[in-house]
Design brief:
This protein has five helices and nine strands; from the N terminus they run αβαββββαββββαα. The chain is of the alpha+beta class. It has two domains: 110 residues, Arylsulfatase, C-terminal domain; 79 residues, no CATH class. The chain has a five-stranded antiparallel β-sheet, sandwiched between helices. The protein has a four-stranded antiparallel β-sheet with strand order 6-7-8-9, covered by helices on one side. The longest helix has 18 residues. It is elongated. The relative contact order is 0.09.
């Protein structure tokens, strides 16, 4: 392969190859290896983010950035590796001035992603069915998927919605776009939702 990949990329590949309901991890955002496996070694792999406890990372192209949170009041520690030249990650390039052009944008990308991960993404709305029934709805962002819930009255238990109707997806899309403008969600989220809508509702045209 023409570029480094990670076992985390298998997560994104599995999710793309099959809709594996319920199989998800909330703090992983990974690309798919399908282009590479399909015989296109020059295909770009989506930046890969992950977070486990105090450790988080971003893998983009040949580079991998690792961030380790420190006690309150202390700045995080970083490690930075060139994976093509140093697959065993034995040489930390973080303090090397020649990689500053690659390092600084990746630090900002990882920081922006962590802010989103640490902000609960729960979007709610109300709507009326064709039968005139009032519904309270919300969608919860878990990993790179959205889980839908609804109830009829305020004190009713929330019920999961396995196959949300198009109206709910459009409500979510509108709210996500507003959050992207406020930098509360990454722009890629709009693309993901539009892709899901087009797959579930091929007749939908924006």
């Amino acid at each position: 392969m023409a570029q480094p990949v990670s076992t985390i990329d298998l997560y994104g590949t599995i999710l793309e190859d099959g809709n594996v309901a319920g199989w998800k991890y909330p703090h992983i955002e990974a690309g798919s290896l399908n282009s590479l496996l399909g015989g296109n070694p020059g295909a770009a792999v989506t930046p890969c983010f992950s977070k486990l406890g105090k450790l988080s990372l971003l893998r983009q192209g040949d580079y991998k950035l690792v961030r380790l949170e420190q006690p309150e009041g202390c700045p995080p520690l970083y490690e930075f590796y060139h994976l093509q030249k140093n697959q065993l990650e034995g040489e930390n390039l973080f303090n090397h001035p020649e990689v500053k052009g690659q390092l600084d944008p990746m630090i900002k990308q990882l920081d922006d992603w962590l802010k989103i991960q640490n902000t609960p993404q729960k979007i709610s709305w109300k709507r009326t069915t064709d039968e005139g029934e009032s519904l309270q709805c919300y969608a919860q962002h878990v990993g790179n998927r959205w889980l839908f819930f609804r109830r009829e009255k305020r004190f009713d238990a929330w019920q999961p919605v396995e196959n949300p109707p198009l109206e709910d997806w459009l409500e979510l899309l509108d709210s996500v776009r507003r959050r992207i403008n406020r930098r509360l969600l990454r722009p890629e989220e709009e693309t993901r939702i539009l892709k899901t809508i087009s797959e579930r509702y091929p007749e939908f045209k924006e």
